[in-house]
Structure formats: C-alpha cells, structure tokens
Specification:
This is Nitrite reductase (NAD(P)H) small subunit. The two termini are 22 Å apart. This protein is 0% helix and 40% strand. The protein is mostly beta strands. It has strands spanning 11-16, 24-30, 33-39, 45-49, 63-65, 68-70, 77-79, 95-96, 98-101, 104-108. The chain binds FE2/S2 (inorganic) cluster (FES).
Length: 113
C-alpha cells in the first residue's frame, strides 16, 4: 500500500482487501503516523495506529485472532475495534474508521482517535 495524501475528503482509498492477507495487516503512512490496516479471518477490516499502547510495539506484525491482535513484543491483546488493551492491561492506541466499498478500503483520517 502507498503513502496517503491529504485532500478535502475525509475518506482516503488505501487499497484493496485483497492486498492484505487473511489475519494479517498492511501499513499505510499518513505523515509521521503509521497506520496498520488489519483483515480478520471473516474479512472485517480495522485500522489502528501501528503502535502498541504498552511500549509502542508494531501491532501490524502481531497475530490477528477474532477481533483482536496480539502484540509481537509482550503479548498484550488489543481490540481491533477500539484500539484498547484487553484483560488486565490498560491503554489504548488510536483507531480509525474504515469503510469497504466492494473490495476497496477507505480510511477516515479526520475521525481517528
Ligand atoms: S509493546 Fe506491545 S505488549 Fe509490550
């Protein structure tokens, strides 16, 4: 996937669902921010900043299972929907709204939080 360019439209086409392996992720860059776009086993798409809320581990390199990703560094489990750590761990990474139009993936960068 390519770097993003900002325009007046909040939704940005970032690629096709077919660019992302099932239970995997691909990264896109928005200025200084790296965003990991995840695909679940049942073809849902989520986008989180590629930074674990624990110690900034690369979530894009984690294991996707159900609606979560396990961080490759210390195994925190992060909700793909909210970016929040699950279980006893606390913290949250930014999440971005995603829309699928056919096989095309659009990210909303303005509503990311
Ligand atoms: S950096 Fe992700 S669990 Fe520690």
């Amino acid at each position: 996937m390519n770097a993003l360019t900002r325009d007046s439209n909040a939704w940005h086409l970032v690629g096709s669902i077919d660019d992302i392996p099932s239970q995997g992720a691909r990264c896109v860059e928005n200025g200084e921010t790296k965003i990991a776009v995840f695909r679940t086993a049942d073809d849902r798409i989520f986008a989180l900043e590629d930074k674990c809320p624990h110690k900034n581990g690369p979530l894009s390199q984690g294991i996707v299972h159900g609606g979560c990703v396990t961080c490759p560094l210390h195994n925190w489990v992060i909700s793909l929907e909210t970016g929040a750590a699950t279980g006893a761990d606390e913290g949250r990474t930014a999440s971005f709204p995603v829309r699928l139009d056919g096989r095309d993936i659009y990210l909303n960068l303005e509503q990311g939080a």
